[in-house]
Structure formats: C-alpha cells, structure tokens
Amino acid sequence: MTFRPAIDRYRTVAAVLLALSVWGCSQYVPLVTEDIVREEIDERVPADLRSRVDLPFELDAATIESVEAIISPASSESRRTQEVVDYIFSRLGLEYALNPTRNAVETHRTAKGNCLSFVNLFVGIGRHVRLNPFYVEVEDYQRWNYSDGIVVSRGHIVGGLRIDGELSTFDFLPYRTKGYRDFEPIDDVMAMAHYYNNLGAEALMRGDLAEAAPNLEIATSLAPDFEKAVNNLGVAMLRSGDADGAIALYQRGLELNPSSVPLLTNMARANQDLGLLDTATAILDQIEAVNHTNPFFFIYRGELALAGGDHVQALAYMRKALAVDTEVPETHVGLLKVFLAMGDYERARHHLSRALRLDATHDEARNYAAMLQKAPESGP
User: Fold this and answer.
1) How far apart, in whole angstroms, are the C-alpha atoms of residue 76 and residue 87?
2) Are residues 303 and 351 in the same domain?
3) Which of 107, 72, 103, 82 is nearest to 92 (CA)?
4) Are residues 158 and 265 in the same domain?
C-alpha cells in the first residue's frame, strides 16, 4: 500500500503532503560540512565498516542535473523553499513507503520513501540550491516495532529550515495528525546515526541479522550515546544467541535512560533466555509499577500469559496495550493472537484488518492473514 496524503505547503493553499510547524529561533544548529562529516566517520567508525558508510543526503549527478533544470538558486529563500517542495511532491511525485529507509539518491530514483528518506532528499536538494536545511528529531513521537518479545526502536526525523528569520519543520508522515511539541535539531553525524539505525532496525524486523549488525555498529560508532541504536544492537546480539552480550549493552543503554521501557523489556527477555526467570519477572514488575505509556510492555506480558495458557490475563494485557496506543499495528496483532487462541475468528479478523490498515507490510500480520484464510468464518 502506498500513501499520498495532503501537504501544507509553505505560504500556499495547495494540498500535497508537507506538514509545516514553526518554533522559536533559539534552537538553530549550524550545518556540518561534508568534509567534517567524513572526518568524523574516519575517526569514529571501525575501519572494516567504513566502506559501507555513505552520506545519506549526498546527491548524484543525475539528481543534480534534474534539480538544476527546475530550481534557480538566484530566487528568494521563500521562493526556493517552495520550489524544493514543489519539485519533491509535484514534479517527482514522492509517495510514502514505510520501508526501506532510502538515501537521497534512492529516494529520487524511486520516488518513494519514508520520513527520513524524504528528509535526506529535502536536505540534499535544499543545500544544493543554497538553502540551509538540517535534520530535526521529534522527541515526543517515537516509533517502535515489536516481534517475538523484543522491542526494536526508531525515532522520527523531520526537515528543519530557517525561512526569513523563522525556523520551520517539514514532515512526511501519513499516519498521524502532526501535533509535535518537542523538537531537537541534530547535526549531520547524528542524522547519519538515525539513518543507519533505521537500516539496522528494518533488517532486524525482516530477520536479516547479517545486514542488521553492521548497520547498528555504524550507528553506535557514530553516536555512542544513541539509546535507540544501543537497544537495537542488543536485539541483534540477543537474536544471535549472545544474551550476555545483549544484557551488557542494555545496561549501557539504561545508564543513559534508566526508565527506558524498550531497554527494560528487552533486558527482561534476555534474562528469560538465560533462564533467570525471577530476574526477568522482577524487571517486568518494576516496569508495570511505574510505566503505563508504552504498549509493547503490555504486549510482552500478554504474550507471556498467552504462552502460559492464561487467555483471560493475556486479553487483559492486550487491551491495556490497545488503550495506550490504538495506532500501533502490534497492539492489534496481539489481540488477534489472543482471539485466535480463544477461537473467536470474527474478532481476530477485525484486529487483523486494523493492523494491516496501519501497516500493510507488517510481516506477522500478513502471516496471520494467510492463516485466517483457512480458518472458519466464526468461532465455536
């Protein structure tokens, strides 16, 4: 499924799909030049991984030629900003695709991408036409994925730009109303850590550990304090059978954020894998006592209850997850599993439908869709 949602264009009334927000001018972060970024890569990334690293906002000759034929760098900042937006969404016809995360060249070539893909292209084109765009992390919106008791973490990135003295953000996210409040401009090196964390997270979700591990190592090398990448590298180690190594990484991440539910949930799972069930249970009880805002904790507890044959408790936990966030496909997949175990195929299909509406590419939901095609129309 692809999405072509509506856009708020800067100083226009047209609809295409760009969300625009404005905040105070005090948070502006200067650009980091490409030469400086490459120096940072050489200093931070292990030598055996450097050949895998590219600058996700860098343009190729074909993209530059196409841009230069349309956008004049001599016009006003406002005019150039509008022309960049028009080029990406009208001329190129960029369509939303959740996966994979693409660099600027791939986004331009395929005319598809997710939020970070869009920002890579927006930053690359904007800088080429003498604008000063940069990456901005939205701190009050995060995205997680959940599979097999493990939480994989990703952030949300938008484009930032100073226009006539004001800082504005440019977004490409079809699922939600844009009500962000907490923005943090980040430099190019941190933006690259987000990019490689996304690549690693996507590889984890499709079960490709050989691709996930090096991308996550790059992300944590570029930004050692990047909690989400630390979490995901721990996931890669846990799925590779190294529970002790994963726990060490989770402990490092918890030093950065002691109340991180993804890290604590994954720490519990790692202890469970080592047979340390009392430790795992204590961690889960600790989370439940203080946190009620992360659906994945409740999904995990629901799956533990389901595995123990306690359908009533499993359903209660899954409903708690749904109450926290109805827009996460995993909450509906969790309810689907419970209703399927209870033989209630009608409600299982209902939540399958809701999960696929939120993410048509969700592998686990698609697997259950194939299973439910063979199930009776209604339960006993």
Assistant:
1) 16
2) yes
3) 107
4) no
Contact predicate 25/165, CB 8 Å: yes
229, 212 Cβ separation under 8 angstroms: no
**CA separation for the pair 294, 328 (Å, rounded):** 11
In this predicted structure, what is the pLDDT of residue 293?
Answer: 67
Only one residue has tokens 């050692």, namely 224
Q: DSSP alpha helices (H): ranges in 99-226?
A: 104-110, 115-128, 188-205, 209-222
**For residue 326, how many C-alpha atoms fall within 13 Å in the half-sphere facing its CB?**
5
**pTM (2 d.p.):** 0.74
Average pLDDT over residues 57-81: 90
The burial class, CB within 10 Å (0-12 / 13-18 / 19+), for 274 is middle
Quick one: pLDDT at residue 45? 95
Residues 100-152 pLDDT 10s = 999 999 999 999 998 899 999 999 999 999 888 999 988 655 565 655 556 66
- The residue length of the chain stands at 380
Range of the domain at 265: 241-291
Q: Which residues contact 231 (CB under 8 A, 6 or more apart)?
A: 151, 152, 153, 249, 250, 253, 260, 262, 263, 266
pLDDT the model gives residue 194: 94
Per-residue confidence (pLDDT) for residue 375, from 0 to 100: 65
Mean confidence (pLDDT) of the chain:
82
* CA pair distance 204, 42, nearest whole angstrom: 26
Give the separation between CA 283 and CA 289, rounded to whole angstroms. Answer: 10
pLDDT class for 182, splitting at 50, 70, 90?
A: low
Give the whole-number percent of the chain exceeding pLDDT 90.
41
CATH of the domain at 374: 1.25.40.10
Please report which helix (H) or strand (E) contains residue 103, including its range. Answer: none
141 vs 155: CA distance, rounded Å = 7
Question: How many folded domains does the chain comprise?
Answer: 3
Answer yes or no: are the C-beta atoms of 351 and 333 closer than 8 Å.
Answer: yes
